[in-house]
Amino acid sequence: MRQGRLPLILTFLLPPLALYGIFVLSPYLQAFQISTTDWMGYSAQADPVGMANFRTLLNDGYVWNALKNNAILLAVVPVVTIGLGLFFASMLTMGGRRGRAGVTGVRGTSVYRLVYFFPQVLSVVIIALLWKEIYSPTSGLLNGALRAVGLATPAWLGDPRFAFWCVLAVMVWSNVGFYVVLFGAAMQAIPRDIYEAVLLDGASRTTMLRKITIPLLWDTIQVAWIYLAIAALDGFILVQLMTNGGPNFSSDVIGLRMYDTSFGSENKFGYASAIGVAMFFLTLSVAVLALRTARRDRIEYS
Amino acid sequence: MNRREILRRSAAAGLLATPAAGLLAGCATSGGGDEGDGGAYKGTKSEQNPLGVAEDAPLEVVIFNGGFGEDYAKAHEAMYKERYPKAEIKHSATAEISKTLQPRFVDGSPPDVVNNSGAGQIDFNGLVSQNALADLGELLAAPSLDTPGKTVKDTLLPGTVEVGSYDGRFLVLNYTYTVYGIWHSTKLFADRGWEDAKTWDDHIALCRRIKAAGIAPWTYAGVHPRYMSWPLISTAIKLGGPSVALAIDNLEPNAWKSDAMKTAADAWHQIVKDKFILAGSPGLDHKQSQTAWCQGKAAFISCGSWLESEQKDVTPPGFNMTVAPTPSLGSGDKLPYEAIRGTAGEPFMVPAKAKNVAGGLEYFRTMLSRKGAQDFTKKVASLPVVAGATEGVDLPYGLSTVVKALDASGSNGFNWVYNNYYRKLERNLVDAACGEFFSGRIGPAEFLDQCQKGADSIAGDSSVKKYKRSA
């Protein structure tokens, strides 16, 4: 029997490992190597240039501008999304006023839960196009509503003051639903009697959320934090489709810089790989930092 | 690691953009090396077969699936097949040229004919500097397929060869003739009793009347504001002569801040200052702004002659769109009012490493035959670069005004090519400056400064190959 196990393990492990190696690890490694060349992408001609691409990167104002926007996304998107997610999830699981002792959600919880999840079902491309129309200055839903109540109607995506924040709002909107469901499920796992005991002790709902729910959900929140932080460093699809980085680079993100450098207005694949490598280390550091700072003792229900 | 090995590694068969994962990465297989097998299929040259096509060699054609569709190309392929029945033709069409074909260029097995167009176009600067394109010179010298006594070059409209040439080598065949101008609806103007103005002062006066009538005089593609750089540069060229464009194309120092450019930018600033632009335009993309224009919300729009077919679905009947040159600034203009920007567009190329280079050239010869060109005009209502291709073809209203404008412009027509030489300069840098300028956030001086800064950054970038033209 023991001899029989090894071939079995190999049969099941080798193919996925090989696939992972070929399609994930090797491209990553090659990107590192390509980032030290001046490869222009349409011939096999690529000369090593050492760290020149990275030096260019340090002095590239457009890259820094894009990084600045990613930093704002990183600071704002996870906080707002998790905040809203927690708020909605706790409303749905324990916001109800029916029967003061019982812990229930608001009326129509199941409907809300379904509706919140809608954006998650749509592809990001559809979300981007949908919101592009909503933000349309002349025929969009948003300006239509503003016009109806007699307010000013800005050009939204066409105005550098708003474009980036418009995309950020869509990013939050499209993510919240998923975290409402995630947090909701985690809250279901918290024993009801804990809440009932706290309620008997006369705690308010905010205290309940702060002192009981969040600590007990900490593992889930931590995971959400890392996911959202990584998403905030990306943002490529929404930005590319909604504003393409404009106007005047005001909504640019680092992923779009990389794409534009290789497949867009230029074909400096070597330099684009350098941007990719920088992005790789940024994402890695952010993930590690998020894990470190969020580490707390695990609470187990007995 | 030696150079050979780096080459082999870089010659990745596929390059996957995985922005979500955060890395641009090549996928290594044992793809071809740097020695391609360009022109593997060769036939014997003869009077009947001046390009030396191997009659049984397969031909692969990749078409950009955009405004023109792909049916016109299928017709050209059928014509090729008629002459070479033994040739097998592989046809495909895509909207994403660069992403689809990039791995095949690296691999050394590109298709024989590529219609490199659209938003996913491959930057020509890079293709040319990497010697990825076959020289089309032989095609120009070959006799026309169905115009006796003339070479292919003789049948082309003026400017076609120049716009496709890099450092004197003809590498890119631009198949359609595009006119860039200011468009209005003849019907709207007739109904309101307006007359299109020929001088800038009259244009501004007309804009005032239009605005007073409750219609926005102008709209533009706020998401692609470079559309507005076209009339602005045209105005400058008509004032200062073609040397204005030459300086810009050759990245001469302060080319964007020439007196002519300054005067033109000051003039165009008027339509921003006087709020002649439809509110919200900065947030509209080209389709949205063109649709607003078709709905009569705005009177003027800047566009190329593809406008009519692009707007086919939303143009009301009897709208009668008309193209006009940019208004003259005054009697000091070097070029007359009628001068208009016309250029060959819709680029086709034969990769240097294509297996059937001769077949690719022969395919171009088929496209440029009178029969091929007329079939194209009928199918997509656009002008090919073949002279006289529209004779006897019923043209739609907008295109007929394009033909008239071209005739009137004659030898005064002008063009610039910095957008071909340095795609990034127009698509990114001048584009961003136009966005700031036409939404009123910066003035004319800052606008030209920003354009010049962009041009300087290209000029100072040693990794970008520079091209010069002399006329």
From TrEMBL, chain A:
Subcellular location: Cell membrane
UniProt entry keywords in alphabetical sequence: Cell membrane, Membrane, Transmembrane, Transmembrane helix, Transport
Membrane topology: Multi-pass membrane protein
Transmembrane segments: 71-93, 114-131, 162-182, 216-239, 269-291
Pfam families per record: BPD_transp_1
Gene3D superfamilies: MetI-like
ABC transmembrane type-1 domain span: 67-290
Family, as annotated: Belongs to the binding-protein-dependent transport system permease family.
PROSITE patterns per record: ABC_TM1 (PS50928)
Plastid found in the keyword field: no
Protein name, as recorded: Sugar ABC transporter permease
Source organism (scientific name): Micromonospora chalcea
